[in-house]
Amino acid sequence: LKSNPSNNEEKEAQTQLTKSDELQRLHSQALSAYQQEDYGTAISLLDEILAVCVWDAELRELRAECYIKEGEPSKAISDLKAAAKLKNDNTEAFYKISRIYYQLGDHELSLSEVRECLKLDQDHKQCFSLYKQVKKLNKQIESAEEFIREGRYEDAISKYESVMKTEPEVPVYATRAKERICHCLSKNQQATEAIKLCTEVLQLEPTNVNALKDRAEAYLLEDLYEE
Asked: Which parts of the sequence are annotated with region: Disordered (predicted)?
């Protein structure tokens, strides 16, 4: 404006300055809310700022952190993916995305994201540790599914039992393993065991279609037609 003053531009500049001051105020409030663990308020304030400052990686990472704290990991993923693109060599974002996918039970996507982290830094300790865990689990699940395709149900059961030992901390993997073991037992004509295990799965996930189908097959083997 100093180099080229005009009324129109001055008005525009004043508007931008006012907006800038407002965004800085919102930023301070968002940080304060985050520090006070009021994550819902922090998200609302960050939404307003990011509507204007679309390309700010740090703000996206902060909002992702709030989503994680609020128990909304899926929403955190989109912010972290944006942050990974916006900031060079953002190993931390790839690590967090991989961990979220892993906790959600999506081991394949988790493996893909942690590999991106290691491409940027092959000595990244957290990523390498996670990579080893996810790779081992992924291999066991792939192997178990291959056994199922080949009709080798006893081998598949044994492999899925290994999956539960490999990852005892994240419940989704145990539930999935039990669901697949029930499928194998049902296919292997071991009706009583299949019914018991499918019932366990259905107590956790009442609308699990696979477990319902496999338990139905097991009931048929036992001539329990009403069930």
From this structure: 1-20
Residue 71, judged by CB atoms within 10 A of its CB (0-12, 13-18, 19+), counts as exposed
For residues 39 and 33, the answer to whether their CB atoms sit within 8 Å is: yes
CA distance 98 to 128: 12
d(CA 212, CA 227): 11
Amino acid identity for residue 165 in this structure: K
What span, in angstroms and rounded, lies between the C-alpha atoms of 60 and 92? Answer: 13
CB 195 within 8 A of CB 218: yes
Q: Which helix (H) or strand (E) element contains residue 128?
A: helix 125-149
Residue 9, C-beta contacts closer than 8 angstroms, at least 6 positions apart:
1
* 3 state SS for 71-92: CCHHHHHHHHHHHHHHCCCCHH
Report d(CA 13, CA 27) in Å as an integer. 21
